[in-house]
Amino acid sequence: MLDNTRESRRPRRRLSLTASGRELAPAISLRRTFREFWPDTRGLRRLFVAGAFFAVLAALCEVAAIRLFGHITDEVLTTKQLAAFWAPAFAWLGLAAIAGATSFAGSYLTALGAERFLLTLRDRVFAHLQTLAPDFSENRRLGDLMARLTDDIEAIEELVGSGLVKAFTTVVSVIFFAGAAFFIRWDLALLTMALIPAFLVVSKVFAGRFRTAAARERASNGAMNSVLEEGLANQPLVQAYNRQEAESRRLHREGGRWLRANMSQAWLSGLYGPAVQVIETVCLIVILGFGAWEITAGRLTLGGLLAFAAYLALLYPAVQGLGEMALTVSQAAAGADRVIELLRGRPTVTDAPGAVAVGRSRGLVSFEKVGFAYPGRGRPALQELSFSAVPGQVVVLTGPSGAGKSTIAKLLLRFYEPGAGRILLDGVDIRGLTRRSLRENVTVLHQETLLFSGSVRDNIAYGRPGASLEEIIGAAEAAGVHDFVKLLPQGYDTPVGQRGRLLSGGQRQRIAIARAILRDAPVLVLDEPMTGLDEGTVEQVMRPLRRLMAGRTTLLITHDLRHVPEGARMVHVDPVPRVDRVRLKRVGFQPHTARLSAPP
Ligand SMILES: Nc1ncnc2c1ncn2[C@@H]1O[C@H](COP(=O)(O)OP(=O)(O)OP(=O)(O)O)[C@@H](O)[C@H]1O
Are residues 286 and 410 both part of a single domain? Predict the structure, then answer.
């Protein structure tokens, strides 16, 4: 029978995990899983229908071939009439060729539908994650998200794509093989069919347990994936702190949990096979005994009995396949739960109805009594913060660690909405602007320089897709990148390595400045741009930075006041004081405000 699901084409074990490692995602019903993912099969249903059609044709050919086999036994082997052999033999050969071709077409079309479904669904989940605040991904383990976007999505495909084709073709095959058996001897067929419910009862008993085991396997597998990802990504830290053995032990511990979860699955699968086989053997013995009786009484031919047994030999695996499908569905549903959980994540900020797409702004930024608390955090990160910045001006946001300085950048980009007060761009409340157009106007240089693993040129061009090579080189020259790029083995095409690790900190920072120059947004937010750079490198970075800041509105977040440009305005951001909330209500809280002071 046709087995064209992805499950049959890849290893059974999959990596998957949840936010907290072994924590299981909530179980969501099968119906809700279909409601969520069925729309993703739009445009692919014709492929699945064609795949099922060819698979059914292949099954029909098998039915006819067995009929010919019975005919050859009775008309050629029993009667020893060799002349009667050739016609059915050639017909059998023809059927085998058709069965082969239709089986291939069925598998191919179903696989095509399955792969396209994966492409669509992965794109959808990834696009959804892009609409969420970056903290959504940052608060989760990367390995977990990776597993959900790969293995769990495949599990869903097995449920609503190729899984459906398999279910349909299996049911049709069962009907064909059972029908053919009935055609030979209805009473004998009825006798053997009576045992079919036993297969279904066994699979039902196993399915529930299998689902729990599968969910546990996915979660523990995911936890192991996270340990692997973290251990490899933080290798310099691991080795510098001599934590290799500890990391290996951690991996071994998670691997052990995964092993146990897998073993409980293997235990169930291992038990399921023999349980089904016992029922199957009982059926065959009953048929052979009854068949022998009927042949002796002259009511059944040998060809009839052999064809009957051949139909049953195909029927039972098909029935067993139906039962196993319940197990596959259980496993797939465990993955679906985890993807649905991601899709339920709601963006913290959306465009307001009637939001305006602003063009290039002048760059006038104002914070007016802005207050904000991160979701789930009782204590505000910012309270009554007010300042403004005009084009050509550098406003230095300084204050102790945890005072909320980086939060200012997140609010300006509208990753979050302030709980109180408002933020204005050119005098317009940014809540009335589309996020896309707002972000076109703001460039942030992060504390940790963020680079992709492409070439130097790709990383600079990220600032403005479609920029010409001349523009890229112009930005690189202004940022002091050109000098060191000339010395790299492949110039601008040199790969920068994962997160730019093949470059020095200063070189990475200058590439980020070139990217910002190319982007040419009127508002610039520099979040601790000198972190981790030595004095010599700071000088190399400061020059292009000054060029970048010229004529723009710059918010410079820094602890280090040594490199504050002349004429900059200081805004001290003080941490929101810890106040007993009950007392705060009774006494009335005097909020702190940002203090403005003259340049140093
Ligand atoms: N995603 C988040 N979820 C919940 N709380 C957060 C989140 N990000 C920051 N915080 C909290 O908000 C407060 C302000 O954080 P923020 O990063 O803005 O401080 P900062 O002044 O930039 O600190 P530093 O100078 O050390 O970078 C801190 O108490 C921090 O723990």
Answer: no
